[in-house]
Structures are given as C-alpha cells and as structure tokens.
Specification:
Blueprint lengths: L1 H24 L2 E10 L4 E5 L6 E4 L5 E5 L5 E4 L9 E9 L2 E11 L12 E11 L4 E6 L2 E6 L5 E5 L5 E3 L10 E9 L2 E9 L6
Parallel strand pairs: 3-7, 4-7, 10-14, 11-14
Antiparallel strand pairs: 1-2, 1-6, 2-3, 4-5, 6-7, 8-9, 8-13, 9-10, 11-12, 13-14
Amino acid sequence: MKKLLILSLLLALAVTASPALARGGADRVAGEVTALDGATGVITLQPRYGDPVTVQTSADTEFYRKVPRGGLEPITFEDLAVGDRIVVEGAWDGDLFNADEVVVVASATPPPPPPPAGDRLGGVITALDAANGTITLQVRDGDVTVQTSAETEFYRMQHHGDLQPITFDDLVVGDKVRVEGAWNGDLFDADRVIAMPVAPP
C-alpha cells in the first residue's frame, strides 16, 4: 500500500512539473499568429495546445517563408499576417520567447504562385562581381551563381513594404535577397533582384 502511495505521488509530481521543464528546455515554438505589433516587434502566437506565447523579435531576427519547392524565401516582419502559421527558434526569457528565426510554414493568404516560366531563389549574398555582373548567393543547399544583365531589375524592399529601385552597385555582401529568373545550366539568370531592408544600426 505504501509503495502504491509513493508511486502515485511521484507520478503526480512528474505531471505537475512537466510543463515547466518543457518550457525551460525549449528552443522552438510553433503556432498561429493572432496579433502583430510592428512598433515593438512582438508577435502573439497561439500554439496548438496551451496559452498564447509572446514572441519578441529584434533587428537580428531572421524571417523566412517556406516556398512550394522546399526552399526558404527571405521576408521581413511586415510580411507576416494574422493567421500565418509559423515556427520560431530562439530562447525563453521569463515569459517572453526571444526569436532568432521566424519561418512562415503556412500563410493566412497564400502568396500568388510564381510565373510558370520562372523560378525564384532566396539567400544571402556572399560575393559580388560587378565586372561580370554576377552575384554569389548562399542558399540552403549551397552556393549559386546568379547572372545579371542590363535587363535585370534591382530593388530594395523598404520597411513599409514598398520597393525602391536600386542598381547592382547598391548591393552589398550580407544582403538577403530574393531573385526571380530561370536556370541556365549551373547559372541562374536573373530577371529581378529584390534586396531585403537594411537592419537599423
């Protein structure tokens, strides 16, 4: 009888302690966006189970959207929408979850599909060759050489979502970019290059 009582108490303690242990050791949260505060960079997230989570983003937080072919497209906080389903990696700080990376895995309003004849790439610029008009882009699966031309359009997305025309020379190593175009062997011929907003200093 005593053994059964002790076992029952231990099980009760384990069940009571498990949520705290899960939170303390967590490095990832997932759920649906229920509110966005652009002024503070806060995302309110409703997990499938449990209470809402307050996610704090910063200038160092990376934002991506999962695209149909399995890649990740760089986006910004302003591209998020209530109803998006996201996965956030980071660390707990009390009741806040500080985000290192936010990935939209299902959009509230799915983005329009890319043009049938074109492809898209998203990644970080690791090298620029102005003489040849090439961009070395680090993507999820390695490096890609992007070939630009006189017909390639260049833009930088602003924090409010508008696109500002720029030139090849305005790009810098470290820029996160989205490239639209088509594969040509091992090269990716760019029709359009969109650089993400520059993080404030």
